[in-house]
Amino acid sequence: MSEILEQLSKFGVVPVVVLNDAKDAEPLAKALCEGGLPCAEVTFRTSAAEESIRTMSEKYPDMLVGAGTVLTTEQVDRAVGAGAKFIVSPGFDPEVVDYCLDRNILVLPGCVTPSEVAQGVKRGLKVLKFFPAEQYGGVSTIKAISAAYVGIKFMPTGGVSLKNLKDYLICDKIFACGGSWMVKGDMIEAGAFDKITEMTREAVSLVKEIR
Fold this sequence. Notes:
Largest sheet: 4 strands, parallel
Number of strands: 8
Strand content: 15-25%
Oligomer: single chain
Helix content: 40-55%
CATH topology: TIM Barrel
Order of helices and strands: HEHEHEHEHEHEHEHEHH
Shape: globular
């Protein structure tokens, strides 16, 4: 698990992907890899998620593919079975978190309050998702919570963009950021994979500049 965390931290940005059609999975994976970001959090919001994770994992075995918006243990099984290397949930569901920990599966549960963070600390988690980041105060809230929970780092997701990425990544309590601006649904559906590669390169360049 620590190896995967190291990779995610090094990337600095984790593309949060919503795929409505699994046929787009391979060209999207190619676009992200060519853009210098061989990583994706494929959300389980659509019926194409499982197949998309499988396609990405098989076609690009060196790519770090995870599953997002995971709400049940059944989805954990399906995601991991398809090749997902990590699980991300929008909130802190003890059942899902404990299920992953019992099976040595990396899980990043969503937290926005000290009470939720405390549940993660209790279970030995070192990295938590902070979602929805901008709506819950962004960097200032993360800094405030971190004052009490010094050993925890956060992956803010929700409202993160190229415009505010630097504000997040310069904070030493930020592990990495989840973002969808370089993989927006309309670009995927339009087949604008060259544009996705271009925007991914831009994000990678900014991360290198900041860190």
